[in-house]
Specification:
2 domains; globular; single chain; two-stranded antiparallel ribbon; 36% helix; Nuclear Transport Factor 2, Chain: A; 4-stranded antiparallel sheet
Length: 187
C-alpha cells in the first residue's frame, strides 16, 4: 500500500485523489490550448492578409512624361538590331499582336522571333498623336505613330501600349500595333 507524503515524510494514510481538482485542471488546460490555437489561427490569418495588403494597395507613382518616356526607351532599344534589348521591355507574360505579322506573340521567345525579323529593316518610330491614362500600377499609351525604315519607306500605324509595374519597373504587358486603314496625307 502506498502512503501520502507530507514534507518528504510518509503520513501513513492512503492517497486521496480529488477528482474535482483534477477535472478543473484539465478544463483550464483545455481552455489554454483552445485559446492558444484560436490566437495562432487569428495571427496566421491576419499575418497572411497583412502580407498581401501592401502589394495590392501600394501604387507606383507615375506621371504622363514618365509614361511617354517608356515609348522612347522601347524605341531606343531598336537600334542596333538587338532583339534581346527589345524583349527586356516586356514581362514574361507580355503580349504582342504586331504590326507586320499575323501571329500574336505571347511569350519572350515569340516576341524575340518577331523582332529578329522586324529589326532587320532598321525601324525608328515617331509618335504622331497620343493619349496617356494612368491607373494603379498600370498605364496606357494609345495613339498613332509613324515608322520609317532604312529603305525609305514608312508605315503609319495605330498603337496601344499597356504598361504594368512589375518588380520595380514599368514593362510592356501588351503592345498592339496595326497599320492605318486609311491613307494618311504626308505632313
Amino acid at each position: 500500500m502506498k502512503s501520502c507524503l507530507f514534507n518528504g515524510r510518509s503520513t501513513g494514510k492512503k492517497p486521496v485523489i480529488d477528482l474535482s481538482l483534477q477535472k478543473e485542471n484539465s478544463m483550464n488546460l483545455l481552455r489554454t490550448l483552445s485559446l492558444s490555437a484560436t490566437t495562432a489561427a487569428a495571427l496566421a490569418i491576419s499575418t497572411s492578409a497583412f502580407a498581401q495588403a501592401p502589394a495590392a494597395g501600394i501604387c507606383a507613382p507615375a506621371t504622363e512624361p514618365q509614361i511617354a518616356a517608356l515609348f522612347d526607351r522601347w524605341n531606343d532599344s531598336l537600334p542596333p538590331p538587338d532583339p534581346d534589348k527589345v524583349v527586356a521591355n516586356h514581362p514574361v507574360d507580355g503580349v504582342l499582336p504586331p504590326t507586320v505579322s499575323n501571329k500574336p506573340r505571347t511569350n519572350p521567345t515569340e516576341i524575340h522571333d518577331y523582332f529578329v525579323k522586324f529589326l532587320k529593316s532598321a525601324p525608328q518610330g515617331t509618335i504622331d498623336q497620343r493619349i496617356i491614362k494612368i491607373g494603379c500600377n498600370v498605364a496606357q499609351d494609345v495613339g498613332t505613330y509613324t515608322f520609317k525604315f532604312k529603305d525609305g519607306k514608312s508605315v503609319h500605324a495605330r498603337y496601344t501600349y499597356v504598361y504594368e509595374w512589375v518588380n520595380g519597373q514599368w514593362l510592356i504587358a501588351h503592345h498592339h500595333s496595326s497599320a492605318m486603314p486609311e491613307v494618311v496625307a504626308r505632313k
